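Progress against Task 2.4 (sequence-to-structure conversion) is shown through the following example record, which the project officer requested during the mid-term review.
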Amino acid sequence: MKEKLVEIIKEIIVISEKCDEPYKVECFKLLLKHELEKSVNNTPQVLNSAIQDTEVAIEKKQREINDSDLHIKFKNFMKKYNVSIDKINQLFYFENETFLGMYDDLKTTKASEVQIRIALLQAMICAMNNGEFEFDGEAVRAECQKRKAYDLPNFTANFKYKAGFFDKFETYKKGNLIKLSEVGKEELSKIIEEISQ
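Structure tokens generated for the chain above:
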């Protein structure tokens, strides 16, 4: 029975991970409840206990970011620009070996500024993972659209206007990763400070 339940839970995790973020846990609960109710040996007390155990396991996957989670190059950036791990944890959390944003408010409503801030924060996520301060412009475009801050006629112009933030940037090309310059990293440190307050 225990081995079968473990296999069922693994299948349910795979299915629930395909759901959008706010629905993952609820999907998991519903599928688990359904599977446990199918089994005649499960009483409501056992069912509730199993659901509580799985909720605890899910919560354990979500946690604050530790210094050891961060790439050494990102730690050097933190030291250089005096960015504390507390500031990082006010913006991001760690779930299933992935850095995820907690910020909703980018502290601006101007589309061009939103776009640049998204780009810098995505470069930050990349740097936390692999030490490279770079981002994909199309991922920035997608997040701008999601945040209703996409300015189609000026999307590439916004990058050109802030070309100093990007290393050897001449023109925007789909599919190319864009790296931050030292000026861009300094701007990122200011944005971290502003958004984390």
